[in-house]
Amino acid sequence: MNDFVNTFVHPEDAAALKLMKSIPGFDLVVKKVLDLSYETLLYGINMASKIRLSEKQMPKLYYRLVIICKRLGIDVPEFYLEMNPYPNAYTFGDTRIFLVITSGLLQYLKEDEVDSVLAHECGHILCRHVLYTTMADLLKTGGDALGLLGPFLVPLQYAMLYWSRKSELSADRVGAIISGKDTIVKTQLRLAGGPEEVTGEVNVEEWAKQADSYEEIRDGKTWDKFLQIVATANLDHPFAAVRVREIMKWCDTPDFQDARKYIHEHYAIKNRCPRCGAKVEENWIHCIYCNTKL
User: Fold this and answer.
1) Residue 189: pLDDT band by 50, 70, 90 thresholds?
2) Kindly report the CA angle at 111 between 131 and 288, in degrees rounded to 5?
3) pLDDT at 288 over 80
4) Which of 107, 247, 252, 265 is deepest in the core (most CB within 10 A)?
5) What is the DSSP string of 87-116?
6) Number of domains the chain is built from
7) Full domain range(s) for residue 96
8) Residue 189 lies inside a defined structural domain of this protein
């Protein structure tokens, strides 16, 4: 990772990844996943069952991802739309990285909130999470069936899920760098409690305090702590209130401002619409393609 990435990787993400890599058999599992051509399997499924977005296929949505990738200095992954009423997005792969969003996400969130989700997923790419995320998914859903057996499998599964939860905190930070604190928090609020017509009047500060109450339980009596370990062991994402509290705290630090400044100085997009990516003229007030104010 370069120095810029190191400034926003969550310390618990880095520590969990280091621990996971130290587990005996980890390198063997990495090789096994790559040897299985799991990427090719996923590519075939995507091409057969989803809509691949491009300059010619839903270009307005496609160029929103392009702009985010340009602002982060990463290559644009394959981009797919999946018919699924559940609002979701995910990124898998290694040499052929792809990003999928569901139809439910587009219906559920506003454009700026969708962009924050895209930025979050691009954060996984920037932080080089994607290979390990793919492995975690494989071990969680089909490790035994694909022959990934061994005495290290179960502890490795739990270690990867633990790391996966921590990796989300780093990706949230990238989402905030691109979309800002308010939008990333608002997006988590929508996904936790419902669309704007339901959650529009939620007090975010009060909601974030729920994470403090949760921490008191998790760090309390031995039995309470054990129950929370059991409750989270099979999750690949942290609880929403915990994520919001973490991102709100980080966005009030100098590191957040430094990261946004770095992005602006190194990956500023000139003469392009920030929404659709189309070329624009200096005297335009609005983009003639998507009507975004310039």
Assistant:
1) very high
2) 115
3) no
4) 247
5) --EEEE-SSS-EEEEEHHHHHHS-HHHHHH
6) 1
7) 3-267
8) yes
